[in-house]
Design brief:
Elements (H helix, E strand, L loop, with lengths): L8 E7 L4 E8 L2 E10 L3 H8 L12 E6 L10 E8 L2 E13 L3 E6 L5 E10 L2 E11 L4 H5 L4 H27 L1
Antiparallel strand pairs: 1-2, 2-3, 3-9, 4-5, 5-6, 6-7, 7-8, 8-9
Length: 179
């Protein structure tokens, strides 16, 4: 990976807990965080969680609420009302499904104040599922002072924890199914 980023800070860190690697770029209010993580479960178990916002609260504590706005089964263009809780702050916005390549890749767009694009790319690996999560957003409004001060390593740590929790959740479900 190129370690030089024009006009911004580029930080590389490696974490062995879930086999994650990150790339964090901070430019003004723009945040780009790339987390490479391995979850010790097959894509068929992992991908449904990444492609269904109504399940995100099961492993991502910042997700407080997701409800589909558009009628019919989810498809590209479908939107969800969304609320995240960051500390004492509730952040309201809309999520939209931009791309869905079943069991391979899903891309989400979030409206202001996140103004974000989040891509989850999954590849089957010997040890489970390798996920490359690419978060790119430009913080807007009050979100700038609520979380804009967080350093890049903190953003990475928070987002990488979601994959650790997803791994634990899937392990628990597999154990329960085996009983």
């Amino acid at each position: 990976m190129d370690s030089h980023v024009l006009g911004g800070r580029d930080l590389h860190r490696r974490s062995t807990t879930v086999g994650s690697r990150t790339r964090v770029i901070a430019r003004g209010w723009e945040r780009r965080i790339v987390v490479d993580a391995t979850v010790s479960h097959r894509i068929g178990a992992v991908f449904p969680y990444l492609s269904d916002p109504t399940q995100w609260h099961d492993f991502a504590p910042a997700v407080e609420f997701r409800e589909q706005i558009d009628v019919g089964p989810p498809r590209v263009g479908t939107r969800w009302m969304a609320t995240d809780r960051i500390g004492p702050f509730r952040i309201h916005f809309t999520d939209q499904l931009e791309l869905l390549d079943e069991n391979r890749r899903v891309v989400w767009l979030s409206s202001a104040p996140w103004n974000a694009r989040v891509e989850y790319a999954c590849v089957e690996a010997a040890e489970g599922t390798h996920i490359r999560a690419d978060y790119l957003g430009v913080l807007d409004g009050s979100l700038r002072w609520q979380v804009g001060w967080l350093p890049g390593w903190a953003w990475h740590w928070i987002l990488a924890q979601d994959f650790r929790r997803l791994d634990r959740l899937l392990t628990l479900k597999a154990r329960q199914a085996g009983r």
